[in-house]
Design a protein that fits this description.
single chain, 186 residues, alpha/beta, six-stranded mixed β-sheet
């Protein structure tokens, strides 16, 4: 059984991405804001993270920056897992504005994350996201202590928590093949 420290990336800044034509997956390049870096600097000093064996990061810029700051503070190596990415609002990568992305997120919420019977929506379903996150968790379940750096929505689907603040740590235990992480707030 592994002890996972789920760390949501710090606050990101998206303003310049759309101005420069980065839409769809281009939003994944969003870096941490100054406030986000400050949030993560505080999180990186959390004593719970010191004994971890490895840091696994989402491939998104804001998560990799978060992992790098934690690594610098703890001396723990970072690896990137491409499946530890955020929820996909448009699996065809066709949205061009934040408003379109937000509309797809509202649609996801309206249908509670699952496609209506007989329909295929643009967005990644909750079931698909949970299966993806379980595969990620299973890959690292043989470690004793692991820091997973990623995104609130995917961590929420793995733990069933309601919210997760930027740079927040959720501590949970996970056993390979388990349906979800068991967590407690500390």
């Amino acid at each position: 059984m592994a002890l996972f420290y789920l760390v949501r990336h710090g606050e990101a800044i998206y303003d310049h991405l759309l101005e420069n034509g980065f839409w769809g997956f281009g939003r994944d390049f969003a870096p941490l804001s100054e406030k986000g870096r400050e949030q993560v600097e505080i999180t990186a000093k959390d004593i719970r993270l010191k004994g971890a064996e490895i840091i696994i990061s989402s491939p998104y810029t804001r998560a990799m920056q978060t992992a790098q700051i934690i690594s610098r503070e703890t001396g723990i190596r970072v690896e990137v897992d491409i499946d530890l990415h955020e929820w996909i609002p448009d699996q065809n990568n066709q949205y061009e504005t934040s408003e379109e992305s937000f509309a797809l997120a509202r649609e996801f919420t309206k249908f509670k994350g699952e496609y209506p019977p007989g329909e295929k929506m643009k967005w990644e379903s909750l079931t698909s996201m949970r299966q993806r996150m379980r595969r990620v968790a299973d890959r690292y379940a043989d470690y004793d202590k692991v820091i997973l750096v990623g995104h609130g929505m995917v961590f929420r689907c793995l733990t069933y928590i309601k919210t997760m603040r930027p740079a927040e740590i959720i501590e949970c235990t996970y056993q390979k093949g388990q349906a979800e992480c068991e967590y407690s707030f500390t």
